[in-house]
Design a protein that fits this description.
By secondary structure, the chain is an all-alpha fold. 93% of the residues lie in helices and 0% in strands. The protein has one domain (2-130).
């Protein structure tokens, strides 16, 4: 009777190993695809921020010069106008830096779908082995 169950156990074990290998390959492919997508998105975001910064610097330079000129005529002091405009711009700049840092940290490189899928697969495999 034990000889008839041995081939069945061997077949089941071989099938489980083969399925596990295929599953591992699929999970690794999913991991690679998800990481590639996440990295591409992050680089695209960084590139857009750099391009926007170039345009913003040019526009900000023109607006700042115009604002300082206007404020200097109102206050009759170019130095005071420069100090006021520079202080306001420094505060705005700090706020934008803090917001940008927060936005970039939110773009996580952790492959969430792969992690969930691997956990689910591990549960299914443990149920198959236990059952």
């Amino acid at each position: 009777m034990s000889t008839s169950t041995n081939p069945t156990i061997k077949n089941l074990l071989g099938e489980a190993l083969r399925d596990s290998g295929e599953l591992a390959q699929k999970e690794f492919s999913l991991f690679r695809a998800e990481m590639t997508q996440n990295v591409k998105m992050m680089f695209m975001g960084i590139a857009m921020m750099v391009i926007a910064a170039v345009f913003a610097i040019a526009a900000l330079t023109l607006f700042t010069a115009a604002l300082v000129d206007w404020l200097a005529t109102v206050l009759d002091s170019r130095a005071l106008a420069n100090l006021i405009v520079g202080g306001v711009m420094a505060v705005i700049s700090l706020g934008l830096i803090l917001y940008g840092r927060h936005a970039m940290s939110a773009a996580s490189l952790v492959p969430d779908r792969t992690v969930r899928s691997v956990k689910r697969d591990a549960e299914v495999l443990s149920e198959r082995v236990a059952g």
